[in-house]
Amino acid sequence: MSRTPEALINAALLVWARESIGLTLDDAAAKLRIASGRLADWEAGASRPSIAQLRKLAGIYKRPLAVFFLPEPQRGFQALRDFRRLVGGGAGQWSPDLHAAIRRAHFQREVSLELYRLLDEEPPETGRAGRTSGGSRRLRDGDPRPARH
After folding, report:
1. CATH topology of domain 11-69
2. What are the tens digits of pLDDT across the range 103-132?
3. What CA–CA distance (Å, rounded) separates 67 from 81?
4. CATH 1.10.260.40 residue ranges in the chain?
5. Is the dihedral of CA 22, 128, 77, 91 positive or negative?
6. Residue 12 CA, distance from chain mean position
């Protein structure tokens, strides 16, 4: 059985992709069905995954395969943090699916803003539940704050 070639990637991208989706090293290794030490070696740059293994990682981390061939991890986008807590409760962990949904929503917002720019139109003002209202504010590029209600 022939092995696919090694993926010539920056090991820091493996760490970034795993952490950005909220997986521990052990959880990611279990999903990939390899030993945690092997994934740790890949992330440390001591060895490299094959292209086939990288494809599986891309699926687990919910990232396009091409992301792993960037020269460095993406920076800039930080998901909003929810500081609401139950009395006596600590900070909860976000699931990988929630991380992916937030990234997808952020991407869709950026695409929408780009379409408005291309059409030379202003985005609509939004209020509660997407309704336009007098007490709302316009969504602007790079403005991560939600509309005030």
Report:
1. 434 Repressor (Amino-terminal Domain) (1.10.260)
2. 788 888 888 888 888 888 888 877 655 444
3. 24
4. 11-69
5. negative
6. 15
